[in-house]
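re: ur question from yesterday

yeah so i grabbed the chain u mentioned. its 135 aa long if i counted rite. heres the sequnce exactly as i have it in my notes:
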Amino acid sequence: MRQGEELPPLEIPITRTLIVAGAIASRDYQDVHHDAELARAKGSPDIFMNILTTNGLVGRYITDHFGPAAVLRKVAIRLGAPNYPGDTMVLTGTVERVDPAPGGETATVRVVGANGIGSHVTGTVTVTVPAGGAA
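ran it thru and got these structure tokens back, copy pasting raw so excuse formatting
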């Protein structure tokens, strides 16, 4: 793990099932996350992904790269363009900082998730990786 390291991109197809399942799993029953007709009545062209699903996908992106022993210390994200069904979100990341930690290292990773209309999510993740635990 080194400053400036780029994580490989991760493409995530945005399906209706992913959006609805993420909303149900996070107990977010707002109609804009599962009912296309009501979402359109509220001005959206379709249902869209909630922030908790996005947060989980960002966490997955980091732990998939750094391994199962990686510990997420802080996830600070901001949403932008909605994730609608039929699009693809591509997550990318760059290690901004690496600091020693007891038994390993802690990194700050800048993460961007872009879809067909722009940046869906931007932010940073702080992750601690035990010595020998990085991918």
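noticed a couple things. The helical segments are 16-25, 36-41, 51-66. also The chain is about 25% helix and 40% strand.
anyway ttyl
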